[in-house]
Amino acid sequence: MNTPDLALGVIWYIVFLFSTTCHEAAHALVAHLGGDSTAAEGGQVTLNPIPHIRRSPFGMVVVPILSYLMGGWMIGWASAPFNPEWQRHYPRRSAWMALAGPAANFTLMILAGIAIRIGLAAGAFRPPEFIRGYAGLVLPANGGAPTFLTSALSILFILNLLLGTFNLLPVPPLDGHAGIMVAMPDRAAQRYMDWLRKSRNFALLGLIIAWSLFDKIFQPVFFFALRTLYAGVHGG
Predict the structure, then answer these.
(1) Helix, strand, or coil here: 105?
(2) Domain of 92?
(3) 72: helix, coil or strand?
(4) Would you give per-residue pLDDT tens digits along the chain (236 residues)?
(5) Which long-range contacts (C-beta less than 8 Å, at least 24 apart) are formed by 117-121?
């Protein structure tokens, strides 16, 4: 691996850690506000990545690094603990807890988009002629190589769009499968949770379904996000 690739990998990992930590901290905070202090007592209501790494070292360290070495981008996971009895008694609160993670990702994406638009308006950034990779979503206006700032904003935008969209898929174990309970009456939500607990193999099946369908789902979402980001820029 050459020096530019290594430097880009460091930027990827910084953005990945920050984005995943925000995702899990949002889960933990909303659960705490809803009456379940399990994650808060475990130190998960924090933007410090260390407690999240300690809980999920494989998903927060090993998998992101391997995915970058193998594919040039990062994926991984973490988790925030919760009390299943609290979830059963308060399914809608649990649903909001589940939705808080993707909401944090979309918030980070929007903030990155605002920063990119400010840079474009100020003449500091320019859009690429075509997308060469996730780190090339925006470039320096002087025509030079991507900088730390342009790479970090590009990755922050696209990675959080990806994480938010993927986690909203309504299949276990992703956040979307619990998030749908926000629209259910309590008894229906409890029956739904009972059905899921009796069918533990659905988690593996859900991941297989999510991975197989995600490319088809994410591609139009990605291009819609790009059109929105660059609306009015060079005829975008």
Answers:
(1) helix
(2) 3-229
(3) coil
(4) 566 788 899 999 999 999 999 999 999 999 999 999 999 999 999 999 999 999 999 999 999 999 999 988 888 999 999 999 999 999 999 999 999 999 999 999 999 999 999 999 999 999 887 765 667 788 899 887 889 999 999 999 999 999 999 999 998 889 999 999 999 999 999 899 888 887 666 777 777 888 888 888 999 999 999 999 998 886 44
(5) 117/229, 119/150, 119/153, 120/233
Neighbours of 236 (CB within 10 A): 11
Residue 235 domain-assigned (yes or no): no
Distance (Å, whole) CA 154 – CA 137: 5
For residue 164, is it within any domain?
yes
- H, E, C per residue of 38-59: HHHHCCCCCCCHHHHHHHCHHH
Q: Using CA atoms, how far apart are residues 11 and 175, in angstroms rounded to an integer?
A: 26
Tally the domains of the chain.
1
Rounded to whole angstroms, how far apart are CA atoms 133 and 46?
31
234 located within any domain: no
3-class SS shares of the chain: helix, strand, coil, % to 5 = 70, 0, 30
